Amino acid sequence: MLPLNEQAYQHLQSLIIEDQFTYNKIYSETKLSKELGISRTPFRDAVHQADCLSSHKPSCKKTFERTAYADGSSEGYHRI
Q1: Which class for 40: exposed (0-12), middle (13-18), buried (19 or more C-beta within 10 A)?
Q2: How does pLDDT run across 55-78, given as a tens digit for each residue?
Q3: pTM reported for the whole predicted model
Q4: What angle (nearest 5°) sits at the alpha carbon of residue 62, between those of residues 31 and 51?
Q5: Sign of dihedral through CA atoms 29, 30, 31, 37?
Q6: How far apart are CA 9 and CA 66, in angstroms?
Q7: Rounded to whole angstroms, how far apart are CA atoms 44 and 8?
Q8: 11-41, pLDDT tens digit by residue?
């Protein structure tokens, strides 16, 4: 099973790909995290991860690290 922040990231990514967000609209972390049944913290991590990956900010490189899970089932990012 994926960590909660990775589940949130995948959910956020699918919402973006499916064009579910409207430009210039404010979305609630609380509402979006409740859709997944998780707390705001892993969702916030996912938003930060998406921001880091899209902007290539130097400060983000120390925040998330790519990892391969021991069972080889998936790869993802975890907060360090």
Answers
A1: middle
A2: 666 666 544 455 555 555 545 544
A3: 0.65
A4: 35
A5: positive
A6: 13
A7: 9
A8: 888 888 898 888 888 888 888 899 889 999 9
3-state secondary structure of 44: helix
Instruction: Report how far residue 17's alpha carbon sits from residue 29's, in angstroms, rounded to the nearest whole number.
Output: 18
Alpha carbon 69 to chain centroid, angstroms: 17
CA distance 78 to 80: 6
Q: How far apart are CA 49 and CA 77, in angstroms?
A: 8
Residue that has been written with the tokens 């880091």 in this structure: 52
What average pLDDT does the chain have? Answer: 76
DSSP structure class, residue 22: P
Q: What is the largest CA-CA distance in the chain?
A: 41
**Cβ atoms of residues 36 and 15 within 8 Å:** no
